């Protein structure tokens, strides 16, 4: 734990307050943080701040006779915020009756008489006892980011997903279910309808933040350190990360720009079982974390979250424009953009996406689905992995598959695992034709693709794992693509044996090079690529060899 538990002492007499605080610090300062307040009202304000920072309070040592708010009155309110904290009153002789009454009514643990000299005899033994008792029950609180929101809010989901995918530990507090969440929203003085509220361990908070604002707050790098790099890589999936490791390890000044979270699609996988060297598999998060560490060790700058939105050529420079309007110039550029989930275009989707209907997102939402019925759309490996992952949390998982079986779209090892998992049902010849609900998903309409019959089933959670499309519109007019948006490279560029239009060099495009010399594409975004982690890693790695060859003629 990083912060020490607090001892809070309250007294309206400044000299007494100073003396108590001094004695407390002398005896307990190495293990506890001693705070003081000159009135009950000031102390309550301080407690609200401590609550927002999730700092534990071990002991209240409070004067009974204070103007405006007596010690007992203060403790009654303080107890609502910190019910486990030990409570001791400091009283003058004349107040002892009130103190004794308070022991019964307010569950005060002890009352001590003023003056308390010598503290070794008249203060510390009692407090030692109370603090030992408190410590024996104490469980350190969560010491990280807390997100307070509504389970069905798309904005709350966006923030949770951003934190989870960037492997930033956080605690989720549902405003509908958690009293603590309701109290914190009150202490932070914010509107319950205006969530999510993100609380940081330094006591600061952000209301309805964007992922970029959260990133800035926690110190993720979103701006380039230099205006020019030898190599810029757009996309931090397996392909981009592999290229970054090889590029930087071979001496190229390298920057990698990632829109969401390093790891790409692979980072959302709960278990990758076919990647070489990991006989029992590894989670996509684990793979991403290792790759990022490796890339950083070689000096790669990773900007995240940051999106590349434009590109232009000023030979010999390739210049990309980021979402914040800034530009990065480089000699060689790798497009490792991967693919995004294909949208399910049925009535209700726009309204309910993020409010019970999700694309991928298994790891972010699985806990919230504890004991519930979960529906999954899709029949490929990603859907199979999602189903296996949810089966550990949900009461039951139904996979809705359009085809007649999983065999044509899923690896056999996953088909076997699903068959052996009793709480997964595979419903073939089934497609979702509508999602229904007022503020969140309440039901889905499923059509039998053979009979046309439609069945409406109650549902709170629908996870979509279908197909994938490249998002490459921003390359329009510069980088050639096929009619589905995948980037053309190498021999795929040749038109009836001719070099691509506008190509002026006295050589053919390299294997992974696009129609623009010095701009390369690797991984899932490339036309004709094999959609696998290993293939993207392989392409990212070998691409760097072509870049060396390209640079040797440019510089
Ligand atoms: C759930 C799931 C499970 C899978 N399981 C396996 C498995 O077990 N084994 C296997 O071999 N394969 C698996 N795959 C497939 C594998 O993950 C992909 O083939 C692989 O991730 C492709 O890597 P990539 O680097 O080409 O692209 P991606 O992983 O898609 O990464 C591309 C990255 O580029 C970023 N990006 C895109 N455009 C921009 C932009 N304009 N600016 C900045 N950043 C941008 C994206 O945010 C993304 O992070 C799985 C896929 C999914 C979704």
Tell me about this structure.
The chain has 555 residues and is an alpha/beta fold. The protein folds into four domains: 6-137, Response regulator (Rossmann fold, 3-Layer(aba) Sandwich), CATH 3.40.50; 145-218, Glutaredoxin; 228-339 and 470-554, FAD/NAD(P)-binding domain (3-Layer(bba) Sandwich), CATH 3.50.50; 349-468, FAD/NAD(P)-binding domain (3-Layer(bba) Sandwich). Helix content is 31%, strand content 23%. It contains 17 helices and 26 strands. Strands 10, 11, 12, 13, 14, 15 and 26 form a seven-stranded mixed beta sheet that branches. α7 links the parallel β6 (145-149) and β7. α2 (40-52) packs parallel to α3 (71-81) and α10 (238-249) packs across α17. The longest helix is centred in the last third of the chain and has 22 residues, at 533-554. It is elongated. The two termini are 53 Å apart. Flavin-adenine dinucleotide binds next to α10, α11, α15 and α17. The modification 4-aspartylphosphate is found at residue 63. It comes from Chroococcidiopsis cubana SAG 39.79.
Layout of helices and strands:
Layout: E1 6-10, H1 14-28, E2 33-37, H2 40-52, E3 57-63, H3 71-81, E4 86-91, H4 96-105, E5 110-113, H5 119-122, H6 124-137, E6 145-149, H7 154-165, E7 170-174, H8 179-187, E8 197-199, E9 205-207, H9 211-218, E10 228-234, H10 238-249, E11 254-257, H11 264-267, H12 284-297, E12 301-303, E13 308-314, E14 317-322, E15 327-335, E16 340-341, H13 349-352, E17 357-359, H14 362-365, E18 373-377, H15 381-390, E19 396-400, H16 412-419, E20 424-427, E21 430-436, E22 443-448, E23 454-458, E24 461-464, E25 468-469, E26 519-521, H17 533-554
Parallel strand pairs: 1-2, 1-3, 3-4, 4-5, 6-7, 10-11, 10-15, 11-12, 15-26, 17-24, 18-19, 18-24, 19-20
Antiparallel strand pairs: 6-8, 8-9, 13-14, 14-15, 16-25, 21-22, 22-23
Helix pairs in contact: 2-3, 10-12, 10-17, 15-16
Flavin-adenine dinucleotide is lined by residues 234-240, 257-260, 264-266, 268-269, 272-274, 307-308, 336-339, 360, 381-382, 385, 471, 523-524, 531-534, 536.
